[in-house]
Structures are given as structure tokens and as C-alpha cells.
Amino acid sequence: MSYAEILRSRIEDRSALVGIVGMGYVGLPLALAFTEAGFQVLGFDIDETKVHKLNRGESYIRHLDGHRVERAWSSGRLCATTDFSRLREPDAILICVPTPLGPHREPDLSYVINTAHQIAAALRPGQLVVLESTTYPGTTDEILKAILEGSQAASPQNVPAAVVDPPARLVCGQDFFLAFSPEREDPGNKNYGTTNTPKVVGGVDPVSGDLAQALYGQVVSRTVRVSSARVAEATKLLENIFRAVNIALVNEMKVILDEMGIDIWEVIEAAKTKPFGFMPFYPGPGIGGHCIPLDPFYLSWKAAEYGIWARFIELAGEVNSAMPRYVLGKTVEALNRHGKSVVGARVLILGIAYKENLDDDRESPSYELIELFQRRGAQCFYCDPHFPEARVGRKNRRAMKSVPLNAEEFARYDVLVLATAHNEFLDPALYKRAPLVVDTRGVLPKAPNVVRA
Ligand SMILES: NC(=O)c1ccc[n+]([C@@H]2O[C@H](COP(=O)([O-])OP(=O)(O)OC[C@H]3O[C@@H](n4cnc5c(N)ncnc54)[C@H](O)[C@@H]3O)[C@@H](O)[C@H]2O)c1
Fold first, then answer.
1. Whose CA is nearest to atom 25 of ligand 1?
2. I need a labelling partner for 395 at 20 to 30 A (CA). Which of 20, 159, 177, 217 fits?
């Protein structure tokens, strides 16, 4: 029996041990999907707090049903570790580590590369490695493959005697297997989760692609096989660039229509009644999250290597990143109309999370708003029921605490800027006594004290 055949039979009878490196917003739901399908999962993370929580059956992601983590843990199928020498245990290793941007908007693959070296140090014949982190085409078959193939083989685990003679150097597609399968997690989406979202899979070689497809086929309702890891990598980038460009388009439309005295949200509501050829996207105070603000630049960076200037991507980035300043300008204008200067004004930002009803503040435009208001001399505060405290981070320079969420408190500020449409902010009674509200999401009913921006 070949390594591929042994692995396939373990996948099919669900006795394969699945290792997941990076137990964050992507890795943890994926781990739960595998445990719920009957697989044993071993999670790897450098964050000891997360590992300890998982090993007590506790979740650290608010929008994820805590009972699912508890059930996975009490079934004995979910276990986590910070010991990366255990990477030789899993039959399949799924990499879900961060892929941020560096200070000059260049891809930062250091997490992926470190993980690849850790896997290489433990790699044994018969393992399948799948990269799930979003990245530019070529990462899996250029970078990962080279690191893994350069490794010395560890002795195989639980492999029948006929194949226990490991080669000195492991060959991809023969001794170990390598694929890319993008993650399409949409945090907080009530209709689509890990198992009912089709999963795109592309192998570095056909055997690797077959095995990765067989693995995901056990847990997701539909796999979409593509011809290579590069096609799978490019698919994910197209999806996110499509979103970034369309969000930029509605943001630009918002600015134009506002000058004409037309409400963009009303226009979108009407346009979306067209049953074909239109898909609604919504304007906002800027874009946030770990994907849309970052991923497009993975492609524009790689395109430059081929002498191509990715104009749409750069333009979308320019339009979207101008939105916090646009909101600032509209707020200053509205304050002026109330006879109030921005200098010394008490400004309350509603929402620190980048998306409604989530406890995720990565790349949130709210931090930029806070900084812009402070630089103009305003006293800036925030309220977010999902973030009692805002810790200092890449985008946030000052630790802050949320103010209470009630109408009495809201009446104490010169202006409220609704940046995130959390359900808790949608009650119009909250704003009855507020002098001025700037609604960047178009969710509050029209009222004399409400301005849309
Ligand atoms: N969050 C999303 O909605 C989403 C959706 C699609 C794709 N992605 C992509 O998935 C990848 C992971 O994103 P995420 O949102 O889960 O990030 P995350 O920050 O929530 O999780 C990453 C985890 O990896 C851990 N980690 C960091 N370095 C590590 C290392 N060397 N070894 C082991 N663990 C390590 C961190 O402690 C953290 O728990 C990124 O490439 C992202 O672009 C994310």
C-alpha cells in the first residue's frame, strides 16, 4: 500500500488525526467541524491562554456557540497544545495562521514560513499539509513545498511494515502531500458556516489534490476541485478583491450622491429589487477585518513582480481608506451647523468592532475615526457592548473603556458617530435626547438630529 492509499483509507473511515495550526477565527470553527464529523483533532497554537481554554472546553470567540466547544472537548475529540514537536502525530495538518501586511503593505508570510519550518522539522511520510491562510498565488507550490521537501524525514507513525522504510528526503506527491484550500469563513453569518459553504481545493499535484478533496469531503457539503494550488489561492483573492472594489464603488457613489442630496441607502434598496445583474454592497466609515483591507494587496504586490500595476486594487484601497476622513468632514460640518466647533467637542463613537454583532476589532476604521477626532482637538469616547475595553493595538494607540449604553449617557455628548450597526444600537429611543447623531451605516430612522455620512 502506498502512503497515499493508507492516508485515503484513514480519511474515509475517519480515523485520521487532524492537526490544525492556528486556533483562531478560522482554525477553531474548522476544528469543531472535524470533531463533529467524528475526527480526532489536535490544535496547535502559540497562545497558551487559548490552548488552556480549549483544554478546559471553553470558547474564546464570542459569536461561536460555546456549547460546541464544550461538546467537542467532552467527547474527547478536541485537544490543543503549544508543543510543536507533536506535529508528527497528525495525518493531516491544516495551516490557519495569520497572513498580515508589513509596514509598507507588503505580504508578511513570516507566520506561514515559521509554521512550514516547524512542520518540516516533524514531517513524516504519509502526512497531508493544507494551507488555508489567504495568500498570493505561488505560496504553496513555491515556498511551502521547498521548505517541506528540504526536510529530513522523521520515522513514520502507525504505518504498516511494508512502507516503514522512509526515504531520506520526502518528495511531495509521493511521500507527503500538499494542497491549498481557502477559508471562506464569514464570522457571524447565521446562514453559512464551515460545513455548508462550498470548499475550493487545489493540490500542488493531482494526488495531493485528491487527498485534500477527500478530507474536506468528509466535513463540508460540497468541495470544488480546481486544477492547482495556485488556482485555489487566486480564487480566494478574486473573492475578496471583488468585495473591496464593490465596497469602494458604493463609497464613491455615497460621496457623489450626497452632494446631489440623494440618499445612497435608499438608492441601493431600490436597485437591489432588480432580480438579475445587481448585488447590493453597502457604504460605511471605511473597511475593517482581517481580510478585505489586507488580502487585495497580496495580489497587487505579486503582480508587481510580473511588471503589472493592479490599478483597480489600488484605487479601491484609496477610496475605502479615505472614508474615515469623509466621515470626519461630514461630522465637522454638522457640528458647525449646530454652532459647535470640533475643538473641545465631546464625540462618542458607537462601535469599535469592524462588523455588526461581532467582537472583532481588527483593522477597524473606528480607531482611525477616534484618532482623527482627537487630532482635531475633540474629546473622543466610545461605546461598544462587545468591547468593554479597547486595548492598545496596531490601530489603537490608547487603551480606552466603553461608556455605558443608554439614552441618558448618549445625551451627554455633542455628537454620536454610529460606526458599527450592532443590534444594541438600533433602538431609536437611545437617540431621542442626543443633540446630533452621524449615521455612517444608514440604519437609523431619519430624524432632525440624525445626519447620514
Ligand atoms: N477571520 C476570517 O474571517 C477569515 C476568513 C477567511 C480567511 N481568513 C484567513 O485565515 C487566516 C487566519 O485568520 P484568523 O482570522 O483565523 O486569524 P486569528 O488571528 O484569529 O488566528 C490565528 C491564530 O494563529 C495563532 N498563531 C500565530 N502564529 C502562530 C504560529 N506560528 N503557530 C501556531 N499558531 C500561531 C494565533 O495565536 C491565533 O490563535 C489568515 O490568513 C486570514 O487571512 C480569515
1. 22
2. 20
